[in-house]
Amino acid sequence: MIRTLGVDVDSTVWDLSAWVCEAVRDVTGETLDPESLSTWTHVLDVYGEEATMEVYERALSPDRVREREPYPGSSEVLWSLQEEGIHIHFITHNWDPEAMIPSLEPWLQEHFGPDIGLTVTTEDKLGILRELGAFGMVDDRPDTITRVADAGLWAATMLQPWNRELVEDHPRVYGFTSWSDFPNLLPPLRGEIEGA
């Protein structure tokens, strides 16, 4: 039996905060403290709509995907899970899925393997997880990961300033600071896969 794990992209396999801080500096000339970055609403409240839109477009531009580096250890861990029979399906939000896929898919395949799946969407991730029959999701957004956990799926997040409180308060959301710690959080799927 093939088991599928949904994995977000931004702030999960690469550091979006660094790109947002760089874009804020380029657009406004100001230095944004990554620890204060909580949501796009925070950026909007501090810098206004016009600057926020420019920051958003710069930080999430499909043209800049190839410049990104994965978080240390994420490639090795996700390759290893695939070797153990866990299918990795990336699910990420973007305002223009058709523009993002041609840039993002080759980058993901280069770093995480040619057999990964990809859905770029403007829709709800929980519905996509259900369609895939996924056992769980790794995502950074508190609202997404809460809904995944509350739906009875396994849920984990790389700890970020905006989701630490959720991990402390929600008993079914697992947090990690390093991808090397991630495999120890997984539910007991390996024996199930090997015995299938």
Explain this structure.
With 196 residues, the chain is an alpha/beta fold. It has two domains: 138 residues, Rossmann fold, CATH 3.40.50.1000; 51 residues. The chain is 44% helix and 15% strand. It has a six-stranded parallel beta sheet, with helices on both faces. Strand 2, helix 5 and strand 3 form a beta-alpha-beta unit. Helix 1 packs across helix 3 and helix 2 crosses helix 3. The N and C termini lie close together (6 Å).
CATH architecture heading of the largest domain: 3-Layer(aba) Sandwich
Biggest beta-sheet profile: 6 strands, parallel
Helix percent reads: 40-55%
- Count of DSSP E strands? 6
The tally of structural domains comes to: 2
What's the rounded overall pLDDT mean?
90
Q: Which series of helices and strands comes N to C?
A: EHHHHEHEHEHEHEH
Q: How many helices in DSSP terms?
A: 9
CATH superfamily of the largest domain: HAD superfamily/HAD-like
Placed side by side, the strands forming the largest sheet appear as 3-2-1-4-5-6
Overall spatial form: globular
What is the CATH topology classification name of the largest domain? Answer: Rossmann fold
